[in-house]
Design a protein that fits this description.
With about 180 residues, the chain is mostly beta strands. The chain is built from one helix and nine strands; from the N terminus they run H-E-E-E-E-E-E-E-E-E. Strand 8 and strand 9 form a beta hairpin.
Length: about 180
């Protein structure tokens, strides 16, 4: 009797996990991933949920200026590096982090936080911040409907956050 109860429990847990994984793909802001491979073979990986603009005014309204943003939707965006990195004069040791941004009309900051596994809002982990790194902000050449995080891999890993008509970037280099 105990074996069949255990089997039923395990199958129920497996079915629930499968349903949860399917549900994430059906969300209005589906899961997305960006990865950069460094010359050493080590990686930087970002997992996030990609919201859609849907005709809305994004920066300054949906994402207010001067407030910490989860940089995506749903769960907070994860940042995992297998290399020791440097960006904006700050060191980022190999490990798992959560990233947020602080957008303003003319300047952004990337916030790398040691607290992981949380939902994206509200932001209440200031005491666990590893670094706040200035980002370069520019207008995109065309509107970006789907919020996207990507990497340019020339000379390191330059992380780009693009949405609406804005792209904010920060360059990570591997510390030797």
């Amino acid at each position: 009797m105990l074996k069949s109860s255990t089997l039923i429990f395990a199958m129920t847990l497996l079915a629930a996990s499968f349903a949860a994984a399917q549900d994430k793909g059906q969300r209005p802001s589906p899961p997305a991933k960006a990865q950069c491979k460094l010359s050493s073979g080590k990686t930087v990986t970002v997992d996030y949920s990609s919201p859609r603009a849907k005709g809305r005014k994004i920066f300054g309204e949906l994402v207010p200026y001067g407030q910490v943003w989860r940089t995506g939707a749903n769960e907070a965006t994860t940042f995992v590096t297998t290399a020791n990195l440097s960006a904006g004069g700050k060191d980022v040791p190999a490990g798992s982090y959560t990233i947020f941004t602080l957008p303003n009309a003319d300047a952004w900051s990337l916030i790398i936080n040691k607290h992981t596994g949380e939902w994206g809002v509200p932001y209440k982990y200031e005491s666990e911040e590893l670094a706040r790194i200035p980002m370069t902000v520019e207008k995109t050449s065309a509107p970006v409907e789907n919020m996207t995080i990507g990497f340019d891999q020339s000379g390191g890993c330059t992380l780009h956050v693009s949405w609406e008509s804005t792209q904010a970037s920060v360059k990570f280099t591997e510390k030797k």
